[in-house]
Structures are given as C-alpha cells and as structure tokens.
Amino acid sequence: MSTSIEDLLFTIRYRCDTESHLVITDQAVCRDCSKPCLTFCPAEVYTLRDGEVHVAYENCVECGTCRIACVHRNIEWRYPLGGFGVAYKIG
Ligand code: SF4
Ligand code: SF4
C-alpha cells in the first residue's frame, strides 16, 4: 500500500507564527517568471491570487526547496522563530 503526499502532510503538526518566515522580495519579478514555485513546493504554499504569488507560509514544511529553486532568488527564506513551525512527531 502506498502513502500519498497528502497522507504524509496530514501527520505533521504546525504551530504557526503570526508573521511569515517566507517573503517574496519583489512581486514585479514574479510577474515575468514561469512560476516554478507553483509546482515545486510539496505543501502548495505558493499559489496565484489576482495575478500575484500568494504565500501560505502556515503550511510550510521547512524542506528548503524554494530557498534554492526560486529561479530569481526572489524569496527571503528563514526558519520560523523558536517554538514555531512544524513538528514531525508522527510522520
Ligand atoms: S519562482 Fe520565485 S520569482 Fe518565480 S514566481 Fe515563484 S517566487 Fe516569484
Ligand atoms: S520550504 Fe519547502 S514547504 Fe516551505 S515553502 Fe519552501 S518549498 Fe514549500
């Protein structure tokens, strides 16, 4: 029996900060980009809303992919502050 990404994500626990630990530096850069972030993030953190890239940082599993895969280095990336973020207690 195989386990889907959705099943695995369901096993992760989150404690969300009120401030995002992921920030798009310049939305103008995103407009001229092929937007690979819409597909490379396993947690679907990046989505398009009204033509702008929206960041649902609350769902981030801190894999670090966007830190290196944003083709324009247009994402400010840091770990959530101490006490916040994901806990892989079950997954
Ligand atoms: S990959 Fe980077 S530059 Fe391109 S749309 Fe996503 S955040 Fe913007
Ligand atoms: S660190 Fe991973 S899960 Fe978090 S936003 Fe980037 S690609 Fe998505």
One letter per element, helices H and strands E, the order comes to HEEHHEEHEE
Distance between the termini: 16 Å
Give me the CATH fold name of the domain at 20-79.
Alpha-Beta Plaits
Number of helices: 4
Overall shape: globular
Overall number of strands? 6
Bin the strand percentage.
15-25%
Chain oligomer state: single chain
- Low-pLDDT residue intervals, each spanning 5 or more residues: none
- As a whole number of angstroms, the C-alpha radius of gyration is 14 Å
Structural class: alpha+beta
CATH class of the domain at 20-79: Alpha Beta
Query: Considering DSSP H and I runs of 4 or more, what fraction of the residues is helical?
Result: 10-25%
Biggest β-sheet description: 2 strands, antiparallel
Q: Which ligands accompany this protein?
A: iron/sulfur cluster
Average pLDDT reading: 92
Side by side, the strands of the main sheet go 1-6
CATH architectural group of the domain at 20-79: 2-Layer Sandwich
